[in-house]
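Cross-check.
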Amino acid sequence: MNITEQKKKRILMIATGGTIASKRSESGLKPLITSEELLGYVPDVRQFCCVDALQVLNIDSTNMQPSHWLLIAAAIEEHYEEYDGFVICHGTDTMAYTAAALSYLIQNSPKPVVITGAQKPIDLEITDAKTNLSDSLRFASCDKAYGVTIVFDGKVIAGTRGKKERTKSYNAFSSINFPYIAAIQDGHIIFYLDDKAQLAEPVRFYHQLDSRVALLKLIPSLDSGVLDYLADHYDAVIIESFGVGGIPTYDSGDFHKAVENWVNAGKIVVMTTQVTNEGSNMSVYEVGKTIKKQFGLLEAYDMTLEATVTKLMWILGQTKDTGKVRELFYQTVNRDMLFTSTW
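Predicted model, tokenized:
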């Protein structure tokens, strides 16, 4: 290896499938392109990094499961000392969940862990895949980069703040209730948040998740018996309520009683909002304030749904003690929550 090669950052690109690695088949797009083949489409990245490829999965991201998140995190942990940064190629449909999950499984990393993908396969003449992959490798090679992020359409998003908001457009992802970390344009990285120096704790990997977390999206007149059913199958439920948050009272059933049953069983109930931006605040209306105070419910505030789901899985993988769950839930990880006691 010559002197120039020694100065380049060593990056491990981990392929998991997704649209970026798909080809057309009789049954539709299917992940078929290998990790090495993906790199073949972005030869120019060799100018600024030395990159190796690793194939851990080759699936449509619709099929992504918590066990896969653990597999990806384990691959990074195994090779952590060998590389300066990591890029994960992933399908877009569950990318925000994976980015959030990895934010909890890999904490305080001074090395960047970047998740990217594409709206169109990399082997097409017109595609966003080459740009996204090249940008991700460039960002992973940057001295200022750290922690888990999404890089997509020239935007760098904290791993806990990403959300797919468009199904077809190249600008598919937004940063919810938090600024973009950086922008990438014409090979240049412009940082809006440059705070790597504040990273004080050593990197820590976690190895357990509890997938028994359910989501209940309220609609007008939903029967509260759904909550009773979920209580028999899950350790925690996230109730996606209307507006700033609250629990309805309907003739068809008593949600208050259903929530009480969850709490008395020592299970976790988290309230969040169906509204994407600005977060919840259950103290505003009687329908929220009363039940939160009565049962001490957790509230997601400005967290994304994807972060709320995966954070609960991470916490419950460590403890079922309700007091400890509450403590960990309100502990900020990778910019996931701007919660303060003034809410």
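The two ends are 56 Å apart (CA to CA). The chain is about 30% helix and 25% strand. Passed to J.P. for a second look.
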